[in-house]
């Protein structure tokens, strides 16, 4: 096989996941001499660092170098495509998008058509419009460039790869169900534990924010959109042409009165007045011997996707979840009544970067 | 990339897994036009079917054709290597070993050195001597041929691929623990359920045999060797140079007095006399509020592997397992105190073949 001897890597995004990825990339390039991995581009939304002649950047110090030696604002996305598609003859290019930016996601078809493979945890490309989804996979199929996005659902947990394997080998996925948000997992495991009483809803949200488990404004977790995006991706991989993450029922846990308060802090301040609502949900489940959880589910046969609160028996694996773990159950024809289950941390910089790095390794084996 | 346009596939073994694999291969070759998949060889231990000029066999009828049009006893393994390594120029060859034969496993280095990739659920190659393990992976690295064996542990569950991803991305796997045998899972979930009393040990073994969950002689499950082989494979992938599946403590559930009785039937007949032993184990666990399960564990730091009975809290995921499911927990540095867990059916022809087919798809993408 005429594998590329050198692979040029461009990294967009240098936040928590970007840093963890670069650390894993530095170790990978030391452990595996072939193909030779060259970091040639790195940028944030405000800065960029690269050389017109593809002189390798130092992977270990790239983020510090970006801070001190940046060449200035990043080029427009088509210029980055042009740069990465002009790497020296006989070599290949991969772009690693560690952002959650829609504009970068929108440019994926450009990268792919130019023969540049993509690995990313960015959910936006795969949960945006169905037209973008089709454009991405058609562009990849045409050029032969690869696109991998394991960490777009469940971080480094083997969720996307397992679903792809089930579908690719001809199994019929009938239902996918699970807890897809580390934040929601933590909140409900604390608010409505299988053992003990649990705290008040507003107090648990406040605690989750203090522990860094929520977005800066907790409403960005409580609106359910993050879970809806992940469900959109899985449903599409299972064969449902879901139009967008807002084209199916998604239950928001933000009281209507607090939708438009101006800040996350104001939201947290006013949330206790609505504790009775969530307490009622919890008590109603308890009366049936159950606990309430925030889940997503896909009924493939019926073509239905939904996100929201559901009740589970105390012995159900979803009820027994711990900490901020995710759990994803795949019900399929081959697996019968007992689903294939994947469980574990579904958020965090290191495990998210792990999904990106293992995707990169799979791409390197194919280009 | 100069991918092979045609891939010639030789299948060794046409039992339950072989049949299920061929059915999945037929569907795959219809769904994916590229690369062109040609079944050119199929054999059991007694018969074989192939054409010297590589005329394609009919995938859908191959097993029937083997029964009626067989060219006779299969060639010696070096002859099969020679045949598959002489496929038309520009094409590639993959051998699919659906047997559990040691002699086929011993020939893997020959296949790999000849550039023939291997996909297999056969545990023997990877759990035999450490010298064979090294020979296999050195041969593959030298020739560039691929070797994939997802179904050698947990059937189609993503166990091997997940462990490889953890290791390849630089995570430190500290501990692996789980229920690795569908038979043992079924036996203990019935014998010592978390709810209800459970049956007598000998009755549960008899029932498991009647349901087809055991080997023809149940002692081949109860001796623990099947679990020990899987642990050997995982331990080696995690970096421990385990010499063989008998080089660490493995608890056999066969009473010493019944080790040498002449048949499985005689064993089952005499087993009730030893029920008190297992009842004592069960009662002792119950006194601690626990249940007993047959598990395997690998402590990577201490270099320790062991297989046998252990007690678990009723709320532990291992205790809560259902039916004949497997569960495998990976404790790693990145995942912290909550492990990455994979759970589901770990045996059965269809899900075993699924692991083989998805391995084949990965190989096809790389050769």
Automatic annotation (TrEMBL), chains A, B:
Q: What GO annotations for molecular function exist for this entry?
A: homoserine dehydrogenase activity; NADP binding
One Pfam family recorded for the sequence: NAD_binding_3
State the Gene3D superfamilies in the record: Dihydrodipicolinate Reductase, domain 2 (3.30.360.10), NAD(P)-binding Rossmann-like Domain (3.40.50.720)
Q: Which residues form the Homoserine dehydrogenase catalytic domain?
A: 158-361
Q: What is its EC number?
A: 1.1.1.3
Q: Where does NADPH bind?
A: 99, 123
Keyword NADP found = yes
Annotated Aspartate/homoserine dehydrogenase NAD-binding domain ranges read 13-150
Q: Which pathway does it operate in?
A: Amino-acid biosynthesis; L-threonine biosynthesis; L-threonine from L-aspartate: step 3/5; Amino-acid biosynthesis; L-methionine biosynthesis via de novo pathway; L-homoserine from L-aspartate: step 3/3
Show the catalytic activity. Answer: L-homoserine + NADP(+) = L-aspartate 4-semialdehyde + NADPH + H(+)
* Enzyme class, broadest EC rank: oxidoreductase
Keyword terms, alphabetized: Amino-acid biosynthesis, Methionine biosynthesis, NADP, Oxidoreductase, Threonine biosynthesis
List the active site: 230
Q: Which residues bind NADP(+)?
A: 13-18
Q: What are the names of the required cofactors?
A: a metal cation
UniProt binding sites for L-homoserine: 215
What GO biological process terms are annotated to this protein in UniProt?
A: homoserine biosynthetic process; methionine biosynthetic process; threonine biosynthetic process
- Family indicated by similarity: Belongs to the homoserine dehydrogenase family.
What is this protein's function per UniProt?
A: Catalyzes the conversion of L-aspartate-beta-semialdehyde (L-Asa) to L-homoserine (L-Hse), the third step in the biosynthesis of amino acids that derive from aspartate (the aspartate family of amino acids), including methioinine and threonine, the latter of which is a precursor to isoleucine; production of homoserine leads to a branch-point in the pathway as it can either be O-phosphorylated for processing to threonine, or O-acylated for processing to methionine.
**In its UniProt entry, what is this protein called?**
Homoserine dehydrogenase
**The organism of origin for this protein:** Gnomoniopsis smithogilvyi
Gene (name only)? HOM6
